[in-house]
């Protein structure tokens, strides 16, 4: 084990917002690592490293920097392993980590650890034509109504009627299923990555275990950092882009939904991890961390995972769509109107745990890459063919969910991000404190009181755990977003603040 | 392992086991929950007990009042692995699975009845009931078990186990 000072010799600050992790920081690095931070975020990253050096390998966990470097050691990685400003220690990949693998390199791999257990966890933003003045008198009732409509927390079950046959179809069709069943509007699809359906999905590659976990949970929010929030526009940085998104004025009311593929996705990832462990022995793939289990992209295990992952991604879109439906119903009920008259359109829907086949330029040559984004968000620039017509001039909207009681942001993709980070930016605040430390240091009644003082209504399934999700437990989302903006990998467009939070 | 192999049956009067002492803790981990089972070096403690403790630690995170879980029926599971780490992984994953699907079983006590480190097989019983949000205050949802820095210290008297679970 190296000391903290020895470790630092492999790290170099190359600009005010970017650090370079040199080869040798961990074994077998095939490319270098880079991570984006500002001064505040930098300190948190180095604290993780220091803590890990002190634990001397007994217990403890791998710091984010080591994880970025372990990813740089995977076979077939192209160019670099990148940590975005919200990066922190996860399992396998760091959270806030992206890496691309060459589809035409037979040795290149796909790793479920580079997607995460919550496949296609993501954020969706709906707009309304309401002003905060319209909502304030009804705020508590509206929060309660949303909470009554959306099942939240551990052990909750979905209220959208589902049969095993429905589930098969949903896995295959994604939002096309929701549309057919009447839970979505046709234009919702236009504003989703992949139009809400990954075509390579094959439900027969999803185990019956995964389906059993998924069936009762469709249309449920989950727990942890997942939430549905009623938010208002606090600041508009880019009026042109905001207008394109239908954001016309300050204090306009929006709804943000953060959720993923629930137990179905978790089990797809678990199954793949177990299957790939065997394939790795057969194909003699060596990795630095067991959680980085992977398989050659073209191997049966690799292909099965990608098809299963796509099915889980479709599940996640159906899930967010179901909760969009429930939110629209809640608003319509409270305002004696229709979702249509309330202009409750989907602004955009991003995936921040996913692997996708994309075209990128590497050293001037066009390459087909399998881009893993774990806790990081695609951020394509203006004129990119894969973004909706409505956003061709602005760049892809990127939705950055804040933490309970703090701000959220809408960014847009940039050309610089396309070049530097394979069109990728941050995904949220990123944790700073461990859950255990939050429980020790914070009292849930204080956290609830602080929210009340900020005028935020809260409905939560497990109030005694809100300190785990308190703003103090996270990095400052504004630091994260400002770093992305300063580094040029995405651009600030809108700032939102919550007025009501619904969570597990 | 298919769920056809797992069975539940109602407990008879006086069949519920004693609730064991808590020998686990939650360590600091930035994103997820780091479980640590540690057994003081006293007579009878062994690795099997560490396995039982670490599974209980996982369930204790799912409700904020674990004592509300009553032992109404017993549920049996059987798993196998290729080495000690995959055995631990599948043991925990199997219990997570019975919690996440019908009958949404949450055990209050876990007893390992067969613990074979030659062929890496475990048979275990969970004593508990179906999770009911009306009865059990909701805790945090466990998404999955990870291999990230998973450690099983077989050689130590304290039989430490470290597992990071994804929240």
From TrEMBL, chain A:
Its EC number is 6.5.1.8. It catalyses: a 3'-end 3'-phospho-ribonucleotide-RNA + a 5'-end dephospho-ribonucleoside-RNA + GTP = a ribonucleotidyl-ribonucleotide-RNA + GMP + diphosphate; a 3'-end 2',3'-cyclophospho-ribonucleotide-RNA + a 5'-end dephospho-ribonucleoside-RNA + GTP + H2O = a ribonucleotidyl-ribonucleotide-RNA + GMP + diphosphate + H(+). Its cofactor is Mn(2+). GMP binds at residues 225-229, 352-353, 401-404, 408, 427-430, 503. GO terms for cellular component: nucleus; tRNA-splicing ligase complex. Keywords: GTP-binding, Ligase, Manganese, Metal-binding, Nucleotide-binding, tRNA processing. PROSITE patterns: UPF0027. Mn(2+) 2 binds at residues 121, 258, 352. The keyword Metal-binding applies. One of its GO terms (molecular function) is GTP binding. It is an enzyme of class 6 (ligase). Catalytic component of the tRNA-splicing ligase complex. This is RNA-splicing ligase RtcB homolog. It comes from Candidula unifasciata.
From TrEMBL, chain B:
Residues 24-167 form the Archease domain. InterPro entries: Archease, Archease_dom, Archease_dom_sf. PANTHER family: ARCHEASE, PROTEIN ARCHEASE. Coiled coil: none annotated. One of its GO terms (biological process) is tRNA splicing, via endonucleolytic cleavage and ligation. It holds the Pfam family Archease. The keyword tRNA processing applies. Belongs to the archease family. GO terms for molecular function: metal ion binding. It comes from Candidula unifasciata. The keyword tRNA processing applies. GO terms for cellular component: tRNA-splicing ligase complex. This is Archease domain-containing protein. Keywords: Calcium, Metal-binding, tRNA processing.
């Amino acid at each position: 084990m190296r000391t903290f000072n020895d470790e630092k010799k492999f790290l170099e600050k190359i600009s005010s917002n970017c650090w370079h992790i040199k080869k040798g920081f961990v074994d077998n690095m095939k490319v270098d690592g880079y991570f984006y931070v500002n001064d505040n975020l930098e300190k948190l990253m180095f604290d993780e490293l220091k803590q890990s050096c002190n634990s001397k390998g007994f217990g403890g966990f791998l710091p984010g920097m080591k994880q970025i470097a372990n990813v740089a050691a995977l076979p077939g990685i192209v160019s670099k392993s990148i940590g975005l400003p919200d990066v922190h220690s996860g399992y396998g990949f760091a959270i806030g980590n992206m890496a691309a693998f060459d589809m035409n390199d037979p040795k290149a791999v796909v790793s479920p650890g580079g997607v995460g257990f919550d496949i296609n966890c993501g954020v969706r933003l709906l707009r309304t034509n309401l002003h905060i003045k319209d909502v304030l008198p009804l705020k508590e009732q509206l929060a309660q109504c949303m909470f009554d409509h959306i099942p939240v927390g551990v052990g909750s079950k979905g209220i959208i009627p589902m049969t095993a046959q429905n589930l098969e179809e949903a896995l295959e069709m994604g939002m096309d299923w929701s549309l057919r069943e009447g839970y979505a509007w046709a234009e919702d699809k236009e504003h989703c990555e992949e139009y809400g359906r990954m075509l390579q999905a094959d439900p027969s590659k999803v185990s019956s275990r995964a389906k059993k976990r998924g069936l009762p949970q469709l249309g449920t929010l989950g727990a942890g950092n997942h939430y549905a929030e009623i938010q208002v526009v606090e600041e508009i940085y880019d009026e042109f882009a905001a207008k394109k998104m239908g954001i016309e004025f300050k204090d306009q009311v929006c709804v943000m939904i953060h959720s993923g593929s629930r137990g179905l996705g978790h089990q797809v990832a678990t199954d793949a991890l177990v299957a790939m462990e065997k394939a790795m022995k057969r194909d003699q793939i060596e990795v630095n961390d067991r959680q980085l289990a992977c398989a050659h992209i073209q191997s049966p295990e690799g292909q099965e995972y990608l098809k299963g992952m796509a099915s889980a991604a479709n599940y996640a879109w159906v899930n967010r769509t179901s909760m969009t439906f429930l939110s629209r119903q809640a608003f319509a009920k409270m305002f004696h109107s229709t979702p249509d008259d309330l202009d409750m359109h989907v602004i955009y829907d991003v995936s921040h745990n996913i692997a996708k086949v994309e075209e990128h330029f590497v050293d001037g040559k066009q390459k087909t890459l399998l881009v893993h984004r774990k806790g990081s968000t695609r951020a394509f620039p203006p004129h990119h063919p894969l973004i909706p017509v409505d956003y061709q001039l602005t760049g892809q909207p990127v939705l950055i969910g804040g933490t309970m009681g703090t701000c959220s942001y809408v960014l847009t993709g940039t050309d610089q991000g396309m070049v530097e980070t394979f069109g990728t930016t941050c995904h949220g605040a990123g944790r700073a404190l461990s859950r255990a430390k939050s429980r020790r240091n914070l009292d849930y009644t204080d956290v609830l009181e602080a929210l009340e003082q900020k005028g935020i209504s809260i409905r939560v399934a497990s109030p005694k755990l809100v300190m785990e999700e308190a703003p103090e437990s996270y990095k400052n989302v504004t630091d994260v977003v400002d770093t992305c903006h300063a580094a040029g990998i995405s651009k600030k467009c809108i700032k939102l603040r919550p007025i009501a939070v619904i969570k597990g | 392992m298919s769920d056809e192999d797992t069975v539940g049956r109602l407990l008879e009067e006086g069949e519920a086991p004693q609730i064991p002492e808590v020998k686990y803790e939650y360590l600091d981990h930035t994103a997820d929950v780091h479980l640590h089972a540690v057994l003081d070096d006293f007579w009878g403690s062994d690795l099997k007990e560490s396995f039982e403790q670490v599974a209980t630690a996982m369930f204790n995170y799912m409700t904020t009042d674990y004592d509300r879980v009553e032992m109404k029926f017993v549920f049996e599971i059987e798993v196998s692995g290729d080495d000690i780490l995959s055995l631990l992984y599948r043991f925990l994953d199997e219990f997570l699975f019975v919690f996440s699907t019908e009958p949404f079983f949450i055990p209050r006590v876990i007893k390992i009845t067969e613990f074979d480190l030659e062929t890496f097989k475990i048979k275990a019983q969970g004593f508990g009931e179906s999770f009911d949000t009306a009865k059990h205050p909701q805790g945090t949802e466990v998404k999955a078990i990870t291999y990230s820095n998973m450690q099983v210290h077989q050689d130590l008297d304290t039989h430490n186990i470290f597992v990071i679970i994804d929240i």
